[in-house]
Amino acid sequence: MQFNFKGKKALVTGGGSGLGRECALLFAQNGADVLIADSKKERCEKVAEEVRNLGAQAIAYEVDVTDYEQVAKMYKTIVEQWGTVDYVVNSAGVCLTEELTKQSIDDINLSIDVNIKGVIYSCREALAIMRPKKFGKIINMSSIAAKACLGGFSVYSATKAAVLAATASLGREAALDNVTVNCICPGIIKTSMWEEILDQMAGDDQAERDRVWAEWVKGTPNGKPQDPIDIANMVAFLCTEEARYITAQNIGVDGGFTF
């Protein structure tokens, strides 16, 4: 798909890998400059170099999205260097699976801090920039787990359902200022996050990893996993003028896994 984002400035949290990286590269391929934010500096820098190789400007930015002051400083940096931010993708997230009574308090708190606070902090700073200038697009990453709630995913599902609720409310708050806020619920995609989920469910047993992965893929009606570009294409579409009337929505890009 072809999009025209020339002159636009994008910020992608979790941009150093997985879906965030795919979104950053698609923005760059279509003319946008991108700030790649990630908790690991080396990942930011690697994707930033890929963005520059596509002819766009890039800022590699190491950030802990659970720290409000760091998030605020990140937005101050993009405004100081580029003047504004037009598109924000909040893709930073963690998925820590375990039955609730067995899950550590540290893991519970980390899930809440990254998946909820990280999104809300970023949206707060983005909206403060976008609403006065009467333009902006925010896309938050939720998950099929927000709707298909299974055992072992209680905390993760709760955090991703919170993203749906926050998105719906923020989309309404910003509607009169020509700022749209939507979220995407991706399906089964073999990203680094899914590799970590398989680590938790199957450990190093490759046969068991393959079995677990196959079981999840079977839940998709066509029996096939998705590719990261499937999500990036929806992100890009939501940033177009053609999507100007879509806001406060949660959009499943999951091959029919949920409805």
TrEMBL record:
- What family does the Swiss-Prot or TrEMBL record give for this protein? Belongs to the short-chain dehydrogenases/reductases (SDR) family.
Which SUPFAM superfamilies does the protein's record reference? NAD(P)-binding Rossmann-fold domains
InterPro entries attached to this UniProt entry: NAD(P)-bd_dom_sf, SDR_fam
Which GO terms of type biological process are on file?
A: bile acid metabolic process; fatty acid biosynthetic process
Keyword Oxidoreductase belongs to the record: yes
Return the PANTHER family for the record: 3-OXOACYL-[ACYL-CARRIER-PROTEIN] REDUCTASE, SHORT-CHAIN DEHYDROGENASES/REDUCTASES FAMILY MEMBER
Question: What are the alphabetically sorted keywords of the record?
Answer: Oxidoreductase
Q: Which CDD domains match?
A: SDR_c (cd05233)
Pfam families, per the entry: adh_short_C2 (PF13561)
Which domain of life, per UniProt? Bacteria
Q: What is this protein called?
A: SDR family oxidoreductase
Q: Indicate yes or no for the key word Transport.
A: no
Q: Which organism is it from?
A: Defluviitalea raffinosedens
Provide the GO MF annotations for this entry.
oxidoreductase activity, acting on the CH-OH group of donors, NAD or NADP as acceptor; quinone binding
